């Protein structure tokens, strides 16, 4: 798919007389060189840097020793440090829209992005604004401006890429801007086993290193067929296995981000694993055909349609489930609310159920659910953690990270969907809460006899206790499968 039509491939400049820059295409077979093609493309490839401030919690290096209090207990104190990140991107329009990876312009942990700068090959810095970003696909669109048009490139058709095709990558590895590497397409639709709906990459042996993220992978016609995203490496450096998001995946998402549209994806609510090895043998099924359902999330589309643990999903809306076309990918590309046939293999018999596809939750919501159910390889979730709902005051005073209770989390914890409270995401191991047995998944239902229905409720109690010079807060805590109990939690010491 092309976002720009009517222009030649390669870096392009809008001109008043509509004259076109001639294509530079090496002859078929092994190219004599990439210099002419690179010269045409390189002006549209940019370096991206961010400046961010990150909050970190200091620890007392003498904690647990006789010297713990000698220099004051600094455990739980929050400090702020400055950090930077570097990556790559490419301009896709004369008016300055820039495509990159979401992780290139996202803050670390509890950080905040203060500034994003796009640097063009001539060394000019431009302040950039975020137009849109999508965590699930790891794509983002920025905007830069100037009075004259920018050179730009366009998306090509990655569906036509074949193993063995020549490609070149241009980017900013280790901050070395304008670096060009060449190679071939090693594989198409390469899956890494992450379970993500976008675990579907172009694999290349063109050297890709840290800082190449977000940069373009070009075919020999000068079209962007991939966005460099990750490497597989035991050392952290390039060993010839680079992964790029295919243009056929990226281009529609980029277009929606530019138009300000919400990115919606389909969702079933199942935990799956590939049908391979002993599992395929035990079921008497072909290797790498279909995906095995390990668990079904209560109340979600799969459960409502009658899909059960132990089922093998073989087709979704008439499309085979394979390594190249996973269940996650197929479902994610179905519009929420659409009813589709899903073919199953259950206890030696084949059957078809109709599923009304739901809307995929955000990665943050899925990460929270995964924290509490302890499962990996979920068709509809990715690993990670969310701290967006946590409170600095609660972390600093109780040593706890908490998040609001939701119906989804309640289902994972096995409690009623109308249960009120906040849920513990993480605990400072040196806190009194940790010493008294609090753990992830605990529900805080009240504090100092005040009902807790939000993070701000608990924060207010903690701040009042601190202002009243109280040393502890009385929490009513419900652990999984137990009745609520009270625990007096000592506040962290402050200097």
Descriptive notes:
The chain has 495 residues and is of the alpha+beta class. Among the domains are: 43-143, Trypsin-like serine proteases (Thrombin, subunit H); 266-359, Roll (Pdz3 Domain); 392-490, PDZ domain (Pdz3 Domain). Helices cover 16% and strands 32% of the residues. The chain contains ten helices and 27 strands. The strands form five sheets. It has a seven-stranded antiparallel sheet with strand order 5-4-1-2-3-7-6, with helices on one face. It has a six-stranded antiparallel beta barrel with strand order 8-9-10-13-12-11. Strands 15, 16, 17, 18, 19 and 20 form a six-stranded antiparallel sheet that branches. A hairpin with a 2-residue loop joins strand 24 and strand 25 (450-451). Helix 6 (363-373) runs parallel beside helix 8 (407-413). Mean pLDDT is 83; it is low at 1-10, 14-22 and 374-388.
CATH class of the domain at 43-143 equals Mainly Beta
- The unreliable regions are 1-10, 14-22, 374-388
- Label the CATH architecture of the domain at 43-143: Beta Barrel
Sheet with most strands: strand arrangement: 5-4-1-2-3-7-6
Radius of gyration: 26 Å
Biggest beta sheet attributes: 7 strands, antiparallel
Query: Counting H and I runs of at least 4 residues, what is the number of helices?
Result: 10
Q: In CATH terms, what is the fold-level topology of the domain at 43-143?
A: Thrombin, subunit H
Structural class computed from helices and strand pairing: alpha+beta
- Mean of pLDDT: 83
Q: Distance N terminus to C terminus?
A: 59 Å
Q: How much of the residues is beta strand, in percent?
A: 25-35%
């Amino acid at each position: 798919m092309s976002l720009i039509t009517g222009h030649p491939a390669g870096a392009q400049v809008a001109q008043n007389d509509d004259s076109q820059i001639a294509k530079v295409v090496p002859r078929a077979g092994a190219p004599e060189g990439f210099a002419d093609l690179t010269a045409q493309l390189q002006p549209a490839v940019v370096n991206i840097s961010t400046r961010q401030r990150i909050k970190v919690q200091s620890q007392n290096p003498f904690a647990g020793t006789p010297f713990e209090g000698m220099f004051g207990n600094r455990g739980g104190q929050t400090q702020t440090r400055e950090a930077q990140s570097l990556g790559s991107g490419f301009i896709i329009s004369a008016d300055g829209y820039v495509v990159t990876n979401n992780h290139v312009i996202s803050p670390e942990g509890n950080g905040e992005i203060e500034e994003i700068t796009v640097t063009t090959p001539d060394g000019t810095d431009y302040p950039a604004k975020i137009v849109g970003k999508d965590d699930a696909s790891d794509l983002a669109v920025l905007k830069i401006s100037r009075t004259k048009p920018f050179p730009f490139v366009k998306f090509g058709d990655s569906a036509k890429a074949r193993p063995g095709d020549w490609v070149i990558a241009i980017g900013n590895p280790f901050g070395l801007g304008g670096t060009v590497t060449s190679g071939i397409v090693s594989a198409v639709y390469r899956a890494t086993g992450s379970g993500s709906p976008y675990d579907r990459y172009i694999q290349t042996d063109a050297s890709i290193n840290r800082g190449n993220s977000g940069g373009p992978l070009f075919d020999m016609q000068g079209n962007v067929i991939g966005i460099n995203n990750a490497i597989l490496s035991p050392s952290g450096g390039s060993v010839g296995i680079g992964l790029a998001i295919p243009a056929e995946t990226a281009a529609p998402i980029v277009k929606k981000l530019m138009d300000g549209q919400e990115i919606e994806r389909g969702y079933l609510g199942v935990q799956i694993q590939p049908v391979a090895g002993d599992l395929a043998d035990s079921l008497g099924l072909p290797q790498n055909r279909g995906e095995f359902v390990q668990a079904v999330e209560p109340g979600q589309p799969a459960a409502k349609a009658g899909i059960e643990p132990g089922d093998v999903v073989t087709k979704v809306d008439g499309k085979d489930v394979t390594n190249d076309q996973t269940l996650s990918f197929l479902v994610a590309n179905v519009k929420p609310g659409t009813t589709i046939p899903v073919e199953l293999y259950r206890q030696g018999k084949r059957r078809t159920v109709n599923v009304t596809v739901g809307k995929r939750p955000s990665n943050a919501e899925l990460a929270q659910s995964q924290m509490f159910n302890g499962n990996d390889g979920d068709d509809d979730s990715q690993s990670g953690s969310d701290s967006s709902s946590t409170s600095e005051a609660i972390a600093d005073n109780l040593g706890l990270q908490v998040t609001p209770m939701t119906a989804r989390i309640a289902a994972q914890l096995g409690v009623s969907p109308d249960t009120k409270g906040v849920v513990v995401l993480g605990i400072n191991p040196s806190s009194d809460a940790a010493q008294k047995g609090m753990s992830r998944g605990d529900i805080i239902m009240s504090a100092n006899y005040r009902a807790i229905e939000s993070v701000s409720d608990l924060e207010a109690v903690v701040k009042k206790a601190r202002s009243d010079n109280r040393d502890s807060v009385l929490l009513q805590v419900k652990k999984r499968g137990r009745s609520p109990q009270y625990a007096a939690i000592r506040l962290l010491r402050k200097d």
